[in-house]
Amino acid sequence: TLLPSIGAISNLYDFEYLASHILSKQAWAYYSSAADDEVSLRENHSAYHRIFFKPKVLVDVSEIDLSTEFFGQKSDAPFYATAAALGKLGNPAEGEKDITRGVGQGSTKVPQMVSTLASCSIDEVMGARVSENQPIWFQLYVNSDRKITNDLVKHVEELGVKALFVTVDAPALGHREKDEKVKFSANQKESTNMLKEAKVDADADGASRALSKFIDPSLSWKDIIELKKLTKLPIIIKGVQRSEDVIKAAEIGCQGVVISNHGGRQLDFSRAPIEVLAESKPELEKRNLDKNFDIFIDGGVRRGTDILKALCLGAKGVGLGRPFIYANSCYGAAGVQRAVDILREELEMSMRLLGVTSVKDLNEDLLDLSALKYR
Ligand code: FNR
């Protein structure tokens, strides 16, 4: 297929449009699908449209600083490529390694969260880093064979990943009908070695169904406490969807949560993460639990202004899933780098127009939240 030159890509939607035309039927079904009627999928994004800005004028905005720190490590911008399985469905040769290369470029370095069920092993991803100080995080799916999980945690800690994101929103698999129509085989070359390691019989109707057999549905809070004993890595709970659970995670000593509904792929009609963030942050502050505890958010983020809104509401970092998957599938590392650059440019410009020069100066006073449900 003839793709336009990368300079012709003006926003993240362009990657999605191109991906919908060039991806295999299987890749498109797996990447784009969400649960049931895909209401949460759409709501994740459209909820951002209920928030407006209250810009400050006559501020010197000639210099904008997008940099931040995650777990004591510098990042050039406050967003990251979040975990996604099966990168080789869209980029058969390089899979997730091209995301690593794309987000690790000198002036644009941002973190990558690598899935337990990535096509490439975490060792391969670490080997693809552009520089040693490039931040890589690991997303953990817990297997019912705890030895597999414990060995994996020890291994990624030794490899030098900087944080462990434990996904908790997938004890059962959301019903993704598009995906279920395409057969998946664990032996396909795009598959992941974790299925074999866990001896999962994973030929199934749909890639999602195959992967979900890896995940232990009995996972509970006490397993998180056990995990804390096993590793010194910061533990962040990914997939939290109510303020009570945000508070619980802080109380048991986790380093953070990702407010997320798995990109609308799990429980349809779960609320938009930005709404849950608006609800949770004040509850956390009220209880003085917001020190040494970070809230991340993902789902439906497509513009610099989306990122800006989440940061104003107190998010430490903002994750994007499908946009990076599509950029990687269409253009490999160059596409991923372009996606990072677009987001940086959009975020920088919006901050200028908002009248704020540094990420740390963003706060809720800059937003009009009157159309938001939980305020
Ligand atoms: C995901 N997501 C995900 N999450 C996770 O913890 N482990 C995983 O292996 C995957 N795999 C995965 C594959 C694909 C194709 C998608 C689209 C998503 C969820 C992901 O980390 C994130 O929560 C959402 O993708 C965020 O929504 P957006 O940015 O895709 O709208």
TrEMBL record:
Domain of life per record: Eukaryota
Catalytic activity reported: (S)-lactate + 2 Fe(III)-[cytochrome c] = 2 Fe(II)-[cytochrome c] + pyruvate + 2 H(+)
Every FMN hydroxy acid dehydrogenase domain range: 4-372
GO biological process, one term: lactate metabolic process
Cofactor or coenzyme needed: heme b; FMN
Subcellular location: Mitochondrion intermembrane space
Root EC class: oxidoreductase
Keyword vocabulary terms for this entry: Flavoprotein, FMN, Heme, Iron, Metal-binding, Mitochondrion, Oxidoreductase
EC code: 1.1.2.3
GO CC terms in record: mitochondrial intermembrane space
An example molecular function term from Gene Ontology annotations: metal ion binding
Record bears the keyword Heme: yes
Subunit and partners: Homotetramer.
Family, similarity comment: In the C-terminal section; belongs to the FMN-dependent alpha-hydroxy acid dehydrogenase family. In the N-terminal section; belongs to the cytochrome b5 family.
Protein's name according to its UniProt entry: L-lactate dehydrogenase (cytochrome)
